[in-house]
Amino acid sequence: MSRKAAVFAGFAFALVGLAFLAPGRPFAQDTQEAVIRKPKIFEETYQLINESDLNCSFYMHEQNKLLPDIRIIGAERMNEKSIFEDGDLIYLDKGVADGLEIGQLFLTVGLRAKVGKLGTVMERHGRARVVRIEDHMATAKVEKGCGTILIGDFLLPFEEEAGEIGKDLGYGDMDPNASKRGHVIYIENDFHISGSGQWALIDLGRQHCVQIGDQLNVFRKAKPNMPREAFASAIIVDVRGATSTIKILGARDAVDIGSEIQISTTR
């Protein structure tokens, strides 16, 4: 047998041996399946509205609406720190006589910036559970705080809310005559611009028949006499009377206060 034929025979024998090691499973196909995985960005659906959007974002506390009647009046380590987080104990100004119970769970919220005549931005700061109670005072332990719980914050009974699984519909051309159009009026953390994953407020709410889960596009014009261009997509995560909170899903440029928005899907 020639040297070339011997090498070929040895190679063929090795392939046969591999086939016996994994009977019934084509070697080339297995290798391909082990390497190729669909990246998350290309999946059909994913978590559009998550726990952070529901418990750590903000909303508009509208003009003339009553504030919550339970408030943080102190904390166990208030002489050492002014911002409270997971595991810290905070003191509430209500107790058994006001209907509070051990184990009761609250959402902490705090007033932030006033926005024209619409109202004041109310930030969600995290959760707190009642662990000790007296007649007119209670102690609560912070759970899943967003890092900004302060003395003076208010508390609301915590209500578990479902998130939203779906697909980012992206941004593109839309009917310029559609009626559900508005503007960005507030950006997260008082920034003047916002990007993917951040929150903002818009001037559309229940009175405009929008609801949580509606998606929208954000537009701008390169010049006043030019057609508008869609450059970002967003989803509504909270709805009030005249305003809503949105989360930016995707953007090729920063979203500004004053950017035009238009609802792209309603349910």
Give the topology, please.
Layout: H1 3-21, H2 27-35, E1 46-49, H3 51-55, E2 58-62, E3 70-75, E4 83-84, E5 89-92, E6 105-115, E7 119-133, E8 138-143, E9 149-150, E10 154-157, E11 164-166, E12 181-187, E13 193-194, E14 199-202, E15 215-221, E16 228-239, E17 244-251, E18 255-256, E19 260-265
Antiparallel strand pairs: 1-11, 2-7, 3-5, 3-10, 4-9, 5-8, 6-7, 6-10, 7-8, 12-14, 12-19, 13-18, 14-17, 15-16, 15-19, 16-17
Task: Tell me about this structure.
This protein has 3 domains: 3-37, no CATH class; 49-157, Thrombin, subunit H; 168-265, FlgT, C-terminal domain (Thrombin, subunit H, Beta Barrel), CATH 2.40.10.410. The chain has 3 helices and 19 strands. By secondary structure, the protein is mainly β. β7 and β8 form a beta hairpin. The model is unreliable at 1-42 (pLDDT under 50). The protein has helices spanning 3-21, 27-35, 51-55, and strands at residues 46-49, 58-62, 70-75, 83-84, 89-92, 105-115, 119-133, 138-143, 149-150, 154-157, 164-166, 181-187, 193-194, 199-202, 215-221, 228-239, 244-251, 255-256, 260-265. The protein has a 6-stranded antiparallel β-barrel.
